[in-house]
Amino acid sequence: MDYDDEAFKKNKSIFFKTVVIELMRLFKLTLLFAVGLSILIFSCLSTFSFGVFFQRIFSVVHLKQSTSNLILNSTEIRHCIVYAFLTLLIFINLGKKKLYLTPIVAMTFGVLMELTQLLIPSRDSNLDDLFWNTIGIAITIVLILLVKFIKLYLKKTDEKKHQI
C-alpha cells in the first residue's frame, strides 16, 4: 500500500490536536470534580473551617488587615467567594455556549451540600447559606456576561474601524 506523505502528516496532525483537546477537557473535568469533592468533604467535617482556609490564603496574598478580618469574620462573604469560584470552574468546564447550565449546576451542588449537612449531627444547614451561595453564583454569571459583552463591543468597534 502506497501512502501519500502529505496526507499522512495532515492526519497525524489532526489526530494529535484531537488528543490534546480531549486531554484538556479531561483535565478540566477532573479539576472541577476534585474541587467539588473537596468542598463537599471539607464542609462536612466538623473540624474544618473555611475561616482558617481563607486566613492561610490571605497570609500568602498579604491583604490589608481590615479587609482580611471582614472576609474571615463573615460567613456570608466566604460562601459568596467559594461559590463564585465554583461557578467559574463549572462555566469553564461546560463551555461558553452552555452558560445557561452553569447556574443550574452550581445551585444543584449548593442544595446538595445543604441537604448533606442535614445528615451530619455536628453541622447545621440553613437557607441563609443557600442565599449567599446564590449571590456568589449570580456575581460570577454577571461578570461572565459583562466580559462577553465587552468582547462583543470591542469586536464590533474593531470591524467598524476596518470598514472605514
List keywords for this structure.
164 residues, mainly alpha, 6 helices, 82% helix, flat
**CA-CA gap between termini:** 55 Å
Helix content estimate: over 70%
Total number of domains = 1
N-to-C series of helices and strands: HHHHHH
Query: What's the alpha carbon Rg, rounded to whole Å?
Result: 22 Å
**What is the residue-mean pLDDT, rounded to a whole number?**
76
pLDDT under 50 segments (min length 5)?
Answer: none
* Portion in beta strands: under 5%
* Quaternary structure annotation: single chain
Largest beta sheet, briefly? Answer: none
Computed structural class: mainly alpha
Instruction: Tell me the number of strands.
Output: 0
Overall outline = flat
- In DSSP terms (H or I, runs of 4 or more residues), the helix count works out at 6
Describe the structure.
The chain has 164 residues and is mostly helical. It has one domain (30-163). The protein contains six helices and no strands. The protein starts with a helix and ends with a helix.
Provide the fold topology.
Layout lengths: L4 H40 L5 H12 L3 H8 L2 H20 L6 H18 L8 H37 L1
Short description:
The protein has one domain (30-163). Helices cover 82% and strands 0% of the residues.
